[in-house]
Amino acid sequence: MVYPSNFKVVSRKLNPSTVVASAPFTRANKFNFGARMAVFNYDNQVIVWSALPYGTEVKKTLELLTGSDAKPNITHLIIPDREHTIAAKSFKEEYPELKIIAMDTVSIPGVEIDYKFSAKEGNKLIDRKVLEEEIGIKESVILDNFEFVYLPLHANQELVTFDKKAKVVYEADLLFNLGVPGTTSGKVTLEQYSPETGYKQGFNPHSGWSFLTRYMQPHSKVGTFLFNKLVQTAKSKDGLKAIYNWDFDTIVPCHGNLIEKDAKASFKSAFHGAF
Question: What domain of life is recorded for the organism (predicted)?
Fold first, then answer.
């Protein structure tokens, strides 16, 4: 799976320190899942979460974040799970000094993982103390602003990120939000398949092979069955509770629209078996 060379990105400010970038992405050339990156600017240091391929479109996202076309000071890149590694190398090539944060199951040819989460950090809050003493992170830009929960039993080994100051949860494949809560009509406008990313107004992202993706949302019985199966809820219960215990009001998923209203309720709906 690769991104097309001419892929387009739509970016917007989520809060004063964060820009989210959304792009189309098709799994197995059949399923419209979409993709998303977030970039943070704290103390003039830029942290990248779930990288999109570095290039012209990503540069526009970085300009929106910093307010300048000067090359930003990108210091860290967070890989959210072992399936979201395609674009990490493009950033490392452009910023060879940046530090990569990932799980110890990630392997990218020619790219070193600087800070690794292992199963012993799994299913618990990874706060400042754990980051510093067990993971070895010393940089204050990470310690001051972020916490994590690692779900090693998830099929893709999910590393969930929490921006403490903005109260936002970032996750890759733990929870999708591709459909419309309470409906199966598929009538939804996905930011990742909007006119800004090259699609016609009114484009139905759930046509053809993507018919089933309409159920991939936190209030669907089909979707939540799949989410719980992937994470092995009974065995990952402590980790899911640790995520829910964060004081968040927004969830930023890689796949589908952001959940900017009743985010905690949506999370609890998706993983009610953990509570």
Answer: Eukaryota
- The whole domain housing 148 covers 10-179+213-274
The encoded tokens of residue 30 equal 């059949």
Of the candidates 189, 217, 230, 166, the one whose C-alpha atom is nearest the C-alpha of residue 18 is 166
Asked if 36 and 251 touch (Cβ cutoff 8 Å), the reply is: no
In-domain check, residue 1: no
Distance of CA 96 to the CA centre of its chain: 22
Residue 201 lies in a domain: no
Report how far apart, in Å, the C-alpha atoms of 110 and of each of 56, 105, 113, 155, 174 are: 23, 15, 10, 24, 28
Task: Name the residue among 30, 37, 29 with its Cα closest to residue 10.
Answer: 37
pLDDT for the residue 29: 67
Report whether 82 contacts 105 (CB < 8 A): yes
How many structural domains is the chain composed of? 1
pTM of the model: 0.94
In this prediction, the residues of the chain whose per-residue pLDDT falls under 70 are: 1-2, 4, 28-29, 180-187, 209, 211
Residue 161: predicted pLDDT:
98
* Residues in a beta bridge with 116: 102
R_g of the chain, CA atoms, integer Å: 18
Residue 208: DSSP 8-state: G
Residue 193 maps to a domain: no
Query: Which CATH number fits the domain that encloses residue 88?
Result: 3.60.15.10
| 233-244 helix and 221-231 helix, angle to the nearest 10 degrees | 100
